[in-house]
Amino acid sequence: MLKIECLNVEIDNKKILKGINLEVNKGEIHAIMGPNGSGKSTLTQTIAGREEYRVTSGSISYKGMDLMKMDPEIRAREGIFAAFQYPIEIPGVNNAYFLRTALNAIQKHKGLEDVDPFNFLKLIKKKMKEIGMNEDMLKRSVNEGFSGGEKKRNEILQLSILQPDLAVLDETDSGLDIDALKIVSEGVNKFHGPEKSIILITHYQRLLDYIKPDFVHVLSNGRIIKSGGSELALELEAKGYDWLNDLSEIEGECK
Amino acid sequence: MDRNKIDKKEEERKLFEELENSEYKYGFETKIDMDTFGKGLNEDTVRLISQKKNEPDFLLEWRLRAFRHWQTMEMPDWAHLKINPIDFQEIVYYAAPKKKKELTSLDEVDEEILDTFNRLGIPLDEQKKLSGVAVDAVFDSVSVATTFSDKLKELGVIFCSFSEAVKTHPELIKKYLGSVVPYRDNFFATLNSAVFSDGTFCYIPKGVICPMDLSSYFRINTANIGQFERTLIIAEERSSVNYLEGCTAPMRDENQLHAAVVELIALDDAKIKYSTVQNWYPGDKEGKGGIYNFVTKRGICKGDNSKISWTQVETGSAITWKYPSCILKGDNSVGEFYSVAVTNNYQQADTGTKMIHLGKNTKSTIISKGISGGHSNNSYRGLVRMTNSANNSRNFSQCDSLLLGDKCGAHTFPYLEIHKNNSSKVEHEATTSRIGENQLFYLQQRGLSMEDAVSMIVNGFCKEVLNELPMEFAVEAQKLLDISLEGSVG
């Protein structure tokens, strides 16, 4: 599905990612953990295609295609979805209208028919119910005046309606209370399946109590310094990140 | 085989036409015999116009007073605009399609003119008339057709060209012409008072809720013509009317002047809602050509509990200079101004409103949305005056500017005048923002193209104003916004 090789990324001439290797296969859940400033969000933005994040070397291939040659909207239409840490407010743009426009842009790309407003309304109401969103959010503007928790739920609503193939969830757990965390996790688990891959980016282990990753990677100072199974997350929870610091010196940049 | 050839040629022609008009699709010119004055302006020009129209003496005298006053005036330069000098002797002041015969019904309106308005999406012929909207079509200097006039007459509603009203209702013209915008008001209004050639007249009698929207569609066609028309709307006690206005012009390299005057009068408990979608030719990408749109629009809430509401979507014109205003004279009267002004390439706009509070408990709302792209400049200029008689009055103003790109400008000039009035309240909010990279990226990441993302954000930004437009107009306005902003984000 996704293959990242020796990825180096700069922003404003500052090196952020320094040789990332990561392979995500169909149906896998990968958790990427790491302290603040380790480059987690940069990875999300780079996969999503944000221009300011300059790839200086390395490659990302997605479904066998060179991701670097694809515009952000094409990546989205080909099935990449990024749930952002800070979802953006768009005043005056109706949430449901926005989501239907996005869905139909993807449908069109796939050569499928538009979803008409009536069927869309049925679909969105069902999905909203599943993640415990109040129906009045249909009438509100995209993320405008939403609480932190509502914004995150709105991201998950979009995920469940757009049905991408690869979801990159950037700190989706931050700012959620325990009940909201459970609901959001359920939404993610419902989305997950043998054809759907997920990259979970998180600072804390607690999300992984609800969404079970197949692999855990530790990102530190722009490098993946350790990879393992889900047990690695528990170890991090117990010991923190400090004990891994030495490792970043050992494993060098990839050439 | 000839047939094939013709088809192919026809196809090529269409394709060419499509390409040519891809940016401003109303830029065509109608070839038709015109009855035209030569260029130039003097007292004789004024007399000639009046003579053409068989006007009563009072009107000619009014025009002449205006003209003499105008000669003492200088073009104002206080607006935040760069205007090429206008040579008023190089303008044609009257051009009307030659009548083949006297018209007795719409069916006899010239083919070419019907065809022109058809192409503009304003069918005038009986069978295809827009349902629910009565139209007065103004072509260069004259009104060429007014639909549904007869039907409206049954209710006592007078809806006709200004020239016709001068003939049929001179008493109303005499009473109200210049009562809101006096002929000495300002340089362009004074010029208009001298040389106006036609326009639209509406009179809604007591207690009548006008059953259909009334509208004027202004078309400039002839080169070098200046269009000077007047609209006069009178809403008697407890009456109500919705009025719409649209406009287009051919693409030309020279600037053309459009200086209109609109006067609205609302008596006790009357309501007038006036909506404009302004789409004059804006000039080309380098800023060559386009219409100078210098318009004076003012309404008076003369009666108690009356209401005047202006909504405007300004996407066209090389320069827009207009301030649809309300004089709130009646107690409890309400004035509203909702505006979207879009400038792209080298367009300039200096637009806003004046709310003059005279009556007690008067209320005004100003919502202005300016969107600038390319090298354009977009200014909001608004005056709120609370006089000492306007006890317990309120104003709320909100002026937001959205910048697309980094070569355009947005400016806000709010003026507040509060005269010995402690019981009234004025609130002003203003924001300027650049279209957010974050917002664009967010929408793109959900699958929207850059163009669709810009369009969605801009439409969201103006939503409060677009919501005020009647349905058909709102759709049209949205399309115009998209076209106007094409290529505005670098």
Describe what is shown at a glance:
The complex is a heterodimer of chains A (255) and B (490). Chain A is an alpha/beta fold and 255 residues long.
Secondary-structure-based class of chain B equals alpha/beta
> Helix tally of chain A?
8
Q: How many β strands of chain A by DSSP?
A: 12
Please mark out the parts of chain A with pLDDT under 50 across 5 or more consecutive residues, or reply none.
none
Average pLDDT metric of chain A: 90
Q: List SSEs of chain A in N-to-C order.
A: EEEHEEHEEHHEHEHEEEHH
Largest interface: A-B, 31 and 23 residues
Largest sheet of chain B: 11 strands, mixed
Rounded to the nearest angstrom, the radius of gyration of chain A is: 18 Å
Protein architecture, described:
- The complex is a heterodimer of chains A (255) and B (490).
- With 255 residues, chain A is of the alpha/beta class.
- Helix content of chain A is 35%, strand content 28%.
- Chain A has a 6-stranded mixed β-sheet with strand order 6-9-10-3-11-12, with helices on both faces.
- In chain A, a hairpin with a 2-residue loop joins strand 11 and strand 12.
- Chain A starts with a strand and ends in a 5-residue tail after the last helix.
- The model of chain A has no long low-confidence stretch (mean pLDDT 90).
- With 490 residues, chain B is of the alpha/beta class.
- Helices cover 24% and strands 34% of the residues of chain B.
- Chain B is globular, with a radius of gyration of 22 Å.
- In chain B, the strands form 3 sheets. In chain B, strands 5, 6, 8, 10, 11, 13, 15, 16, 18, 20 and 22 form an 11-stranded mixed β-sheet that branches. In chain B, strands 4-3-7-9-12-14-17-19-21-23 form a 10-stranded mixed β-sheet.
- Chains A and B meet through helix 2, strand 7, helix 3 and strand 8 of A and helix 9 and helix 10 of B.
